[in-house]
Design a protein that fits this description.
Blueprint (H helix, E strand, L loop, with lengths): L1 H8 L10 H10 L2 H13 L6 H25 L9 H10 L7 H19 L5 H14 L8 H19 L1 H5 L3 H24 L14 H4 L1 H24 L3 H12 L1 H11 L7 H22 L5 H8 L5 H18 L1
């Protein structure tokens, strides 16, 4: 939210490198999306991947919000260029970076886990080998449409999260204190390297595509990109682990349950922010979170159809079907 709020308040294409907002944006984008994919891979370990369930959870909201964003952009925001529906639909499907791209890319990453899960049931060691093979193969597929371009980079972190969950017990044997010391050291290293590399103009988190071929063409930037992402993830984990307050962790946990609600609608809600500079940045951040949750809880979550279409929440048809018999039984008792 903060990253998008900055870009909503400041034109980063013309901003100076010495602009604090530009600096903060580069800091966030160095690791935040790799972190999200790592967490996504982590929570999927040990779960059966059902294509239909993943499609409902991720692809249906991705598709459902395309006409909504198009309608608002076309008739309310009055873009200075014609926003036609069919070109918008085509561009969003073929190049999802212009839409809610995280959803189809996460869907593709989830599908790539299916062969790994199947192999691990027979031979545990094949998990690591198959994930590495998938990463290499996907990187050399000569296709960069429908989210494949993003998968070539982010699947590495998705797989890393999956493997962290797989080896969680082994990691815990290292000991809590040693883990905390390691995280603290990696966090300090990340901050020091970020400041240094930023001054050397070696931090370029917005450059795409990032493919394995870059390792041979430009190994320096490629290794910086991956290593800084992992160090930034270590910083994020260290901050969460350092949060000792039960209430603060409860708040974080609750927000974890409504991230889809915020993600799908925040792009529209931020457009309601006014002012300039830091005023617009703060309002974009607040509107993006608060108004997205208001829309979700007061409208989208009220009906199972809108829950499924816009939030990817699987409807419980047993409860839906059960309402009529229950009502009939009450009426029969009253008679």
């Amino acid at each position: 939210m903060l990253g998008h709020s900055i870009s909503n308040a400041e034109n980063l294409l013309v901003a100076s490198r010495y602009n604090l907002e530009y600096y903060l944006s580069n800091f966030i984008y160095t690791f935040h999306m790799p972190l999200f994919f790592l967490v996504s891979g982590y929570v999927l370990f040990g779960k059966k991947i059902k294509i239909q369930d993943r499609a409902l959870r991720l692809l249906v909201p991705f598709l459902a919000w395309i006409p909504v964003y198009w309608f608002v952009n076309r008739y309310f925001l009055h873009f200075p260029w014609p926003v036609l529906f069919w070109p918008t639909l085509k561009d969003t499907l073929l190049h999802p970076a212009v839409g809610l791209w995280f959803l189809p890319v996460l869907f593709l990453c989830s599908l790539l886990l299916i062969p790994t899960s199947a192999l691990e049931k027979r031979w545990s060691w094949t998990g690591e080998a198959s994930l590495l093979a998938i990463f290499i193969i996907i990187n050399f597929i000569p296709v960069d449409i429908v989210g494949v371009m993003q998968v070539k980079y982010f699947f590495f972190f998705f797989a890393a999260g999956y493997l962290l969950a797989k080896h969680r017990k082994r990691i815990q044997r290292i000991g809590e204190n040693r883990i905390n010391v390691a995280l603290a050291g990696l966090s300090i290293l990340f901050l020091a390297l970020f400041v240094t590399l930023y001054q050397l103009k070696s931090i370029k988190p917005f450059d795409f595509p990032v493919v394995l071929a870059n390792l041979f063409k430009a190994p320096g930037p490629y290794l910086i990109r991956y290593s800084m992402a992992f160090l930034g993830i270590a910083l994020a984990v260290a901050i969460v682990k350092a949060t000792r307050s039960t209430r603060a962790r409860a708040v974080l946990a609750w927000f974890g349950l409504v991230t889809m609600d915020i993600y799908v609608a925040h792009g529209l809600m931020m457009q309601l922010a006014f002012g300039s500079g830091w005023t617009k940045l703060v309002l974009s951040f607040v509107f993006g979170i608060v108004l997205s949750l208001v829309l979700s809880f007061f409208l989208l979550r009220q009906w199972w159809v809108t829950q499924a279409a816009f939030l990817g929440i699987k409807p419980d048809f047993s409860l839906i079907r059960g309402r009529e018999p229950a009502r009939a039984a009450v009426e029969e008792d009253e008679m």
